[in-house]
Amino acid sequence: MTDPWVALEPGADPVERVRTLRRAHETFTEAGTVPRPVRSVVAESWRRSARAGVAPDGTATVELTDGDLGSYRAEHPLAAVMPLFRELMGTFAADGKHLLAVCDEQGRLLWVEGHPTTRRQAGRMNFVPGARWSETAVGTNAPGTAVAVDRPVQVFAAEHFIRRVQPWTCAAAPVHDPRTGRVLGAIDITGGDGLAHPHSLGFVQAVARAAESQLALLAPPRTAADTVELTALGRDEAQLVAGGRKVALSRRHSEILVLLSRHPEGLTGDELLCALYEDESVTPVTLRAELTRLRRLLDSGLLASRPYRLTAPVESDVAVVERRLGSGAITGAMTAYAGPLLPGSVAPAVVRLRRRLADGLRTALIARRDPDLLADWARAPWGEDDLDVWRALAAVRPTAAVRARLDEVESEQAAPAGWMPPRPGGRGPAHTSATSSQRTRL
């Protein structure tokens, strides 16, 4: 199969594929192994479903009904683009005896519309508004899995984890907040085997992108006076934008603002001292002097004291990456990650945050197994020696170039400390100072 995200390759017999998938599903539920030709995206979803304790004979639970459902839907951001969804997909769903469904970021169905007969049939498995169809609740299914992996997904017949859903086929794509990149939910088309076609996957993806564009137009513009933004990834000295004014910060001021932006409740002087300085001999007077200079630099009363805190919400690129990671938007997190947080900083709290952010992102990349995302990390300055990522990339993209680079990284990291490879031409080792030859590792 050329595209692992498409359920059926051209020319495949859907009836025979259903038989094969049912046998594979039984093998997995009985032995825990996934035989071919189950797609990798489905195999990984089955494993996640099993780890979440989903029962193959289970069913969805309806969590929101009547007034609660109506109030929740009215306040949800995707309510603003429901007219667009109906315009683009409503006729297709009704004429094709399909269903148009929209779920929130937790996999709860908010709207299920389409052909009346199909809706009644879907209702027997609780594919109804208010029901939770997250992957952790009902296993592999297009809307729940699309939210879980933050990618357009097709799920064909017996690829569904729960048996009573296996007569159905669906395709879904996540919809993001255009301002923050956060996953808001997913748009889904559900029906028969005819949806197991590349066109249905491309269709829902195009509708999701159209919805994101409309959300961007509907969002009220932020004024410069409302905006306080901190950029600290991939740079030793952060930049703050406040009231339309750009402020270049020293390394110490960068560290202070990064920490205060993460603690809106504020930090005491002692807490800041411990967070900023490894040397316990640094006195509170030194810290107060730095804060006085920072307050003068910021102006406009942004920095308050007792405890030290920022008087306005600050949107940082660190928070954007964390938020996207937390919602499973790995591609969005990679897009926002411009490099390690204040890479030259040795402030203990900043070092911990830098490591946690990088480790969380690389762990998510390795788990996702997306060759393009892995390649982006491996070829970035901070990932070029990341052995685990190169191994993961070689597993999903075993080209000669990738294997060769993996061999280099393994050899370099297995070499004794201080050893350098010979210079080209056999003129002996390349003597370089330790300081210049070392690379910062995450």
UniProtKB/TrEMBL annotation:
Residues 407-442 are annotated as: Disordered. Residues 432-442 have a biased composition (Polar residues). The keyword DNA repair does not apply. Keywords: DNA-binding. Residues 244-310 form the OmpR/PhoB-type domain. GO terms for biological process: phosphorelay signal transduction system; regulation of DNA-templated transcription. GO terms for molecular function: DNA binding. This is GAF domain-containing protein. It comes from Streptomyces fagopyri.
